[in-house]
Amino acid sequence: MASSLTSNPKVQLAATAVVSATVAAVALLSYQRLQQGDRVSRLKQSIPDGDSSANDPALQTVAPVGPLPKPDREDMHNQTLAARAQAGDFDDELILEQLARNRVFLGDDGLARLREAFVVIVGCGGVGSHACAALARSGVARIRLVDFDQVTLSSLNRHAVATLADVGLPKVQVLQRRLVAATPWVRFDLRLQKFEGRVAGQVLEGWEGDGARRPDFVIDAIDNIESKVELLKYCHDEGLPVISAMGAGTKSDPTRVMVGDIGASFEDGLSRATRRRLKLQGVVSGIPVVYSTEKMGAGKAALLPLSDEEFKKGSVGDLGVLADFRVRILPVLGTMPAVFGYTVANHVILKISGYPIDYQPAKARDKMYDAILAYVQASEEKMVRAIEGGPTDVCIGLKVPITPGDISFLVEEAFRGRSAITGIPTKLMLIRWKRPQGTTLVRIGEEPAEQKSSNLRLRDLVCMTKEEAVRHQKEVLHGDRSLADLYDAETIELVEARQKEAEEYERYR
Q1: Phi, psi (5° rounding) for residue 18?
Q2: I need a labelling partner for 4 at 20 to 30 A (CA). Which of 22, 179, 211, 237 fits?
Q3: The whole model's pTM is what?
Q4: How are beta strands 398-399 and 428-432 bridged, if at all?
Q5: Can you give the residue ranges of every domain in the chain?
Q6: Distance between CA 196 and CA 62 in Å, rounded?
Q7: Rg (CA), the chain
Q8: CATH number listed for the domain at residues 73-300+335-353
């Protein structure tokens, strides 16, 4: 029976067809894999090495974004039209007609300011791409796009304009490729580069090298905490208007997305981590952020480590353009980055055009931080006098290495705005937790140029109410009672956990 089947011409023909189809499919998949690998390899080679020396010329040069690898007829038509429009060969009345709805909303002066604006968008993924699309369609005429990454298949659930044909292409190039079809008069400056503090001056330089033409607004749509903090710190120090998008990942409720000051944001992990780092660098408030107040809960998406299935796809370095840049898979509902991106763009449009806008102010707690810092200063002076003895002027000129930003970080972030002893959120103070084993006085130089300071560190302090701090100082710091005499094991464990957090973040000061 088997012999008759194998000798049957129809069976042989069917078997040959199956084998041929299999070979063809394998060849096609192999070709696609090689083509994708080649694209990724070329893109990786174009990105400056993040481990290179700060003096490496490659870090001072933005990787060029070349022409589309295979432009189709529509691409060529759009690019030609864009070249003509940017050269002035485009009827301004047509542009005004396209922007008519914005014009009647913002007024002639507001729209004119928007059309003269220069905006930098750092990060062109889900949030940044939607912000970019909204700004271009609203009339912003100069947009600089900064991103090192390429579009992947998983980008397509949230990217504003990318299609299957764009997979493997730089995100900055894809945005320009698609948006010139709708807004050919918009000038795009593409920067294929990972943002780092050491190249901030170059990335945020004036338009077309004009140092006097600073950005009217900078949009932070970065999902890497290190780069995010460096960008916000630079903008804060340089006085550049900036708005930052916090975490859209794991969020699902668009009604909870809002604009507020970095010092007032809550229920957002990325916002909290960013705020912590900035406070330790002296930036307590003054940066508007888009964040969600949605609480996590049972059955909701959560941040997860890479699964075994994801690891089988390759090492972490093979999963992105830069080695080890991403180490976790973030669950993202495709609609939420769009909500964040349009909220960012809305804020920028209204600010530039001069339309009335208010966002949630920072907590008015500056006076409280100053009072706590004064209490820490007085406590340290008392500690030095108790340990050193001798003349009472030993504390004159004593400096404490703590800033109002440090106070804000410890109270709000490390201790969550509550006493570690009772959880009470009012009349808070900071004080040393343990009795020092030796002197706390640090002397540098000699009189009359001697500098005296305390050896106090963030990790030494604990948050208590004023009444609790007075008792702690009397009975533990200047008395003979131990921590175990005064507090239960759970309280001591909590304090030590909070102090470890403070120690971890101290290195970012």
Answers
A1: -65, -45
A2: 22
A3: 0.66
A4: unpaired
A5: 2-40, 73-300+335-353, 366-506
A6: 12
A7: 29
A8: 3.40.50.720
Alpha-carbon torsion angle 66, 69, 72, 76, nearest 10: 20
Helix (H) or strand (E) holding 191: strand 187-191
* Structural tokens at position 50: 């993040």
3-class DSSP state of 63: strand
Strand duo 451-454 + 441-444: pairing: antiparallel
Which H or E run contains 93? helix 92-98
Structure tokens at 490: 């759970």
Which residues, 6+ apart, have CB-to-CB distance to 455 below 8 Å?
440, 441, 442
Terminal C-alpha separation, the chain:
82
At residue 40, φ and ψ (nearest 5 deg) are: -60, -40
According to DSSP, residue 295 is labeled P
* Tokens matching residue 153: 């298949």
Q: What is the pLDDT of residues 423-481, one digit of tens each?
A: 999 999 999 999 998 888 888 988 778 888 899 999 999 999 999 999 999 999 999 99
pLDDT in tens, 18-27: 555 555 544 5
SS3 content of the chain, % helix, strand, coil (to 5): 50, 10, 40
CA dist 442 and 455 (Å) reads 6
For residues 423 and 491, the answer to whether their CB atoms sit within 8 Å is no
Q: Exposed, middle or buried: residue 53 (CB in 10 Å: 0-12, 13-18, 19+)?
A: exposed
**Maximum CA extent, the chain:** 113
